[in-house]
Amino acid sequence: MKQWLARVTSNVAGTVIEAWQELRIHRLRVILSLIGVGVAVCALTTVVALGAIAEQTSREVNERYSGRPATLTASIFGSEGPVDSAVTDEAWIAAMDRYEIDYWSRNGYGSLTAQFVDGAVPLATQVVDVDFAEIHRLRVVTGSWFTERDVTRLAPPIVVNEKVWDRLGRPPIESNPTLQLLGEQ
Predict the structure, then answer these.
(1) pLDDT 10s per residue in the chain (185 long)?
(2) pTM to 2 decimals?
(3) Rounded to whole angstroms, how far apart are CA atoms 128 and 87?
(4) Which of 1, 16, 66, 105 has its CA 20 to 30 Å from the CA of residue 151?
(5) Cβ neighbours of residue 71 closer than 8 Å, sequence gap 6 or more
(6) Angstrom distances, CA of residue 148 to CA of 104, 123, 138, 152, 157
């Protein structure tokens, strides 16, 4: 053990002494080499970091449109008219429970008529469940996304885009603004 330690100590000391002599004799060459190594390490680190940022950005944009990895999409169409939503909702929730799926959201598109100060306007709508924002990486600019507590509210909450918000007159969120939807449903 002593011989091994003596050999290692001798090798390290010899390397340091040789490096010091090289530095004394060829200062400029050693300094330029160190600068070159530093620049190379910096460039390599920057390229790897930019690649990681680009990859993460691409992943997040992709997930906004198609969902996170392992997102399963199912569509239901009726050959003889509208599908009974009570039956499909019950089957959907049973399947989510059976396969222990933690994040899920139904997604539907339609049109509703909203009453604004200057008249009634048809609005394209998208109906989703609470987890839709988590699955698709959606972030609300102002206000908040849906929560489980919204189910018990007397006035159902909605999330609107900038155009609808502008049409409402951009009221402060604290004033609890409302949007009257016309129709029977």
Answers:
(1) 788 888 889 888 888 888 888 878 888 888 898 899 999 999 999 999 999 999 999 998 888 888 877 777 777 777 777 777 777 888 888 888 898 888 888 888 888 899 888 888 999 988 888 888 888 888 888 778 888 888 788 778 888 888 888 888 888 888 888 888 888 76
(2) 0.60
(3) 18
(4) 66
(5) 135
(6) 13, 25, 17, 8, 11
Q: Which amino acid is at 18?
A: E
Distances (CA, A) of 10 to 2, 3, 16, 138: 12, 10, 10, 62
Tokens 């988590």 locate to: 134
